[in-house]
Write a structure and sequence with these properties.
Blueprint lengths: L3 H26 L9 H4 L11 H13 L2 H9 L4 H28 L6 H8 L2 H32 L4 H19 L4 H21 L12 H19 L6 H26 L18 H8 L7 H9 L10 H32 L3 H4 L8 H17 L3 H37 L8 H18 L10 H30 L4 H27 L3 H29 L3 H6 L3
């Protein structure tokens, strides 16, 4: 079967989501109000609260939430077969991710741009909020650790990506300054993307590697240290100077990359070589429920709720932009996951079909981003005639830049939580920007180097991935729970949010329990501790939320609103 049918199926679904379903949710459920004065205007400080053009904010939001996850997850999950992966990416984006992302952005906007953790205090209670923040901190630690190891691995395997990845930083700063001075957005966007693609050409002709063993940790370990040094500095800069323009220009680069990839599919009409449902090797985790946590970003992701409520809501110029930024951002990520499925099940499988089980052994060290880069590069070279070196570099840079922007945002959000703990418990040192950032980095580095497959320092990325996926989906269910209770308090229809919440909560807790047993048998104690902490915390939050809902159902709305859990 031609892969064009996969693309058509996915894009028709996404079109329905954007033109029909998102309008219904925005108008009838969330009731987005263009006249509502957003926190970006109320608290405009030029640093975190900055009213932002919706196209710029979409680019910043999209690349912050996308990262490498919608590439790695689908590239691994197609091992069970392309049909379940395709269905979850398509329907998950429409009915789960879009509703979740837009809802988190809207609810935060209506509560002074509070983070989803702080927002849970207003809607559920103080104890729930304190526990929510624990889950969020653990998830951010997992996100930053796993993406740091992924970027390092890419820079070692594809040294041609090093030069363009670092060139993107001064380009982003220049764009941030020019946007601040109100230069023509289209012109600087074209120039910025042109510079990025020229740097990709230079990188493909001039691969770079680290000069020696800087920190004595080998190439991967050295890159991890350098990446966290950069992310720490970037997370403390004003959002308009680096985070926002870097995310925006990376978003523009991604859109162009997606056009090239989808165009290559139209030009080549590659056959889907991989099986629709695969007979997997012995020892492979079960399709249910593991598929739904392996593909998180690209179908549904709790990390999106953190970004929506942590940074994007502080930059929302008009409440109606929540649909464009939140829902369309989710569909953009679904589009990336969709083309990843095509790339991996077509040319990559055709080239490695006999070694499929060996490539994906146990889903613990699957091809992930490497499969996307190699499969996508073959697709682009066949379709457009672009040299394979340039194609591989372009896709490797895409992965590195997206994962890097996620690290920037993730570390900034971790710092917010540490500082929030400092305010809550009146611990003055934790309120300090530099100390809070250093503590966040230390937690991530302990995880990045503490979980290892025994090959080299910083090789535990794909071991951390399942825990990240399960925790991510639990947080998504918790975010949907907060939105659901808020809708109940407002007297609005809730089933469009409540049903996805129940489904993903059941699957995520099931998957977490499965991984606790698996990691206990493998004696991966760090991961067992994180998983158990998340499960116990989640159960307590559910009980707190049920208490609030019970009071609302009994008509004691005043008591429910005032309840501290």
């Amino acid at each position: 079967m031609s892969s064009i049918f996969l693309v058509i199926f996915g894009l028709i679904g996404f079109s329905f989501g954007w033109f029909v379903y998102s309008k219904f949710i925005a108008g009838k459920i969330y009731k987005l109000d263009p006249n509502y004065v957003t926190p970006a205007h109320q608290f405009n400080d030029g640093i975190d609260f900055v009213p932002t053009n919706k196209y710029v904010l979409w680019g910043a939001h999209f690349t912050a939430v996308a990262g490498a996850a919608p590439i790695i997850g689908p590239a691994v999950a197609v091992y069970w077969g392309w049909v379940p992966a395709l269905l979850w990416v398509t329907f998950g984006s429409i009915f789960f991710a879009g509703v979740h992302d837009m809802g988190a952005l809207w609810a935060s906007n209506r509560h002074g741009a509070k983070s989803i953790g702080a927002l849970s205090e207003s809607i559920i209670g103080k104890r729930a909020s304190a526990l929510f923040m624990v889950i969020i901190f653990l998830l951010l630690m997992l996100v930053n650790a796993v993406f740091g190891t992924i970027i390092a691995k890419d820079m070692v395997e594809f040294p041609s990506s090093v030069f363009p990845a670092w060139v993107a930083i001064p380009v982003a700063i220049a764009i941030g300054v020019l946007i601040r001075k109100q230069f023509n957005l289209l012109v600087i966007s074209i120039i910025g993307v042109a510079i990025l693609y020229f740097s990709i050409y230079v990188g493909s002709e001039m691969p770079l590697e680290l000069p020696g063993d800087i920190f004595g940790l080998g190439p991967n370990g050295n890159w991890i240290i350098l990446l966290f040094m950069y992310a720490g500095i970037a997370s403390m800069l004003p959002v308009w100077l680096l985070l926002q323009p870097r995310d925006y220009i990376n978003g523009a680069q991604l859109v162009l990359g997606l056009i090239v990839l989808y165009g290559a599919v139209l030009l080549t009409m590659p056959e889907v070589s991989a099986p629709a449902f695969n007979t997997v090797a012995e020892g492979t985790p079960p399709l249910f429920p593991i598929l739904f946590v392996t593909i998180a970003c690209g179908a549904l992701s709790g990390f999106h709720g953190i970004v929506s409520s942590g940074t994007s809501s502080k930059q929302l110029d008009n409440e109606k932009d929540a649909r464009f930024v939140g829902y369309l951002g989710a569909l953009g990520e679904g589009s990336l996951a969709l083309i990843t499925i095509v790339a991996v099940t077509g040319s990559l499988y055709a080239a490695n079909g006999a070694e499929w089980d060996a490539i994906y052994t146990g889903l613990s060290s699957g091809p992930g981003q490497t499969g996307f880069i190699e499969g996508g590069a073959q697709l682009i070279t066949t379709g457009w005639g672009i040299p394979i070196a340039f194609s591989e570099t372009m896709l490797a840079v895409m992965v590195v830049l997206f994962a890097g922007t996620t690290m920037d945002a993730g570390l900034r959000l971790q710092r917010y939580i540490v500082q929030e703990w400092g305010n809550i418990y009146n611990i003055a040192p934790l309120k300090n920007n530099i100390l809070a950032t250093l503590l966040s980095i230390a937690a991530c580095l302990i995880l990045a180097f503490g979980v290892t497959a025994g090959d080299y320092p910083g090789d535990g990325g794909m071991l951390i991935w399942p825990v990240f996926g399960a925790t991510n989906q639990i947080l998504a269910s918790m975010t949907l729970m907060v939105i659901s209770i808020y809708l109940i308090k407002l007297g609005r229809p809730v089933k469009n949010v409540l049903i996805p919440m129940i489904i993903i909560l059941f699957l995520a807790l099931w998957a977490s329990g499965w991984y606790v047993i698996d990691h206990f048998q493998k004696e991966s104690w760090v991961l067992v501790f994180i998983e158990l902490a998340v499960i116990v915390t989640t159960v307590i939050i559910i009980l707190e939320a049920w208490s609030v809902v019970s009071k609302l159902r009994s008509g004691n709305a005043e008591e429910a609103s005032a309840s501290d859990g």
